[in-house]
Design brief:
Blueprint (H helix, E strand, L loop, with lengths): L3 E4 L6 H12 L4 E5 L6 H5 L3 E3 L5 H10 L4 E4 L5 H6 L1 H22 L3 E3 L2 E2 L23 H20 L3 E2 L1 E3 L1 E3 L12 H11 L2 E4 L7 E5 H13 L11 E2 L3 E3 L1 H9 L6 E4 L3 H8 L8 H7 L7 H17 L1
Parallel strand pairs: 1-2, 1-4, 2-3, 4-5, 5-7, 6-8, 8-12, 9-11, 10-14
Antiparallel strand pairs: 11-13
Helix pairs in contact: 1-8, 3-5, 5-6, 7-9, 7-12
Length: about 325
């Protein structure tokens, strides 16, 4: 990989992935693509950027051609709750947009495309505990349906066109640089803002709602490692489980109280978010990723809380 395009570069993952890739491949070799949310901070200041609308095939084609792109990370999407609020836009961005990216990448002969999947690709009929890599997938959310589409299309493009498409099923991601929007697992980020600003937080998921979660440095690590893995060792393409930790709201609140004594969490359940969360796994089995490309997370709950609290405290004090 010599010249990399990252769509969705202004988002939660993109704001962390772009600097990591620039540190690895050089600032000028990683192009940050955005659509409606302008780039800010480190992503805007350290390297090339361009506006790309993935729903317009020509827009993706032009970016690949103009910047001499040979590899692409496709992060642009509408998250779970935002997707439910606008079905037509969800289909346009999450399904048509993905297809446009894959067609453009295949037509240009790109070396590699990385398309993150999600725990949303599973459903109510999936085993919830230690969910295996290969199992029944029958998601009940538009976001999840799009993720299954992405996994299948990644496999299809690899087999039919030779395009090297790879991806991991990310858990809920916790990060501090960019506030997430429209996700079901966002409570795990919002709780830190509430703790630091007010010493309290009202959670929209009920106590006992276990979900697989991951601190953003591990999510970035997983995306880069799957992209750089030796293809000779890979028996799958766009659908690797990666696991880090699982917790429910009360456990997160208890961990935050180590840093914010007296932190209080109460509840006002959002039926839509709760319905979506109940269809997702409690925990993931990532044995396949560990065996085929050596996946190992670096952060557990306590380490994540400490690092998240320190970084977000500094950010909010500015």
């Amino acid at each position: 990989m010599k010249r990399i395009l990252v769509t969705g570069a202004a988002g939660q993952l993109g704001s962390e992935l772009v600097p990591a890739l620039r540190g690895r491949y050089g600032n000028e070799n990683v192009v940050a693509a955005w659509r409606s949310s302008p780039l800010t901070g480190e992503v805007a200041d350290t390297g090339p950027a361009t506006q790309v609308d993935v729903t317009e095939p020509g827009s993706v084609d032009r970016a690949i051609r103009d910047y001499g792109i040979d590899s692409l990370y496709h992060l642009g999407s509408l998250l779970s709750v935002a997707a439910e609020a606008n079905r037509s836009l969800s289909h346009l961005v999450n399904i048509n947009g993905l297809l446009n990216v894959l067609e453009a990448a295949s037509g240009a002969g790109l070396e590699r495309v990385v398309i993150p999947s999600s725990i949303a690709a599973f459903g109510l009929d999936t085993p919830h505990d230690n969910t295996p890599n290969e199992t029944l997938q029958r998601p009940t959310s538009l976001y999840g349906i799009a993720k299954v589409f992405g996994e299948l299309m990644g496999n299809y493009f690899f087999e039919r066109t030779g395009l090297d498409v790879r991806g991991v099923r990310l858990p809920g991601v916790v990060s501090w640089k960019v506030e997430p929007g429209g996700g079901t697992t966002d409570y795990a980020v919002d709780a830190f803002y509430g703790a630091i600003r007010e010493g309290r937080y009202t959670c929209y998921l009920r106590p006992g709602t276990y979900l697989p979660m991951m601190y953003v440095p591990d999510a970035i690590k997983a995306l880069i490692e799957i992209a750089e893995a030796d293809i000779a060792n890979l028996k799958r393409h766009a659908d690797y489980n990666v696991n880090s930790m699982s917790f429910e709201p009360e456990e997160l609140a208890a961990a935050i109280r180590r840093r914010v004594p007296g932190f209080a969490m109460d509840y006002d359940i959002d039926p839509l978010r709760q319905y979506i969360a109940d269809s997702w796994p409690n925990s993931l089995d990532d044995t396949v990723a560990r065996q085929e490309w050596g996946w190992r997370p670096d952060y557990g709950l306590a380490d994540m809380v400490d690092d998240m609290y320190e970084n977000l405290s500094r950010k909010l004090a500015q």
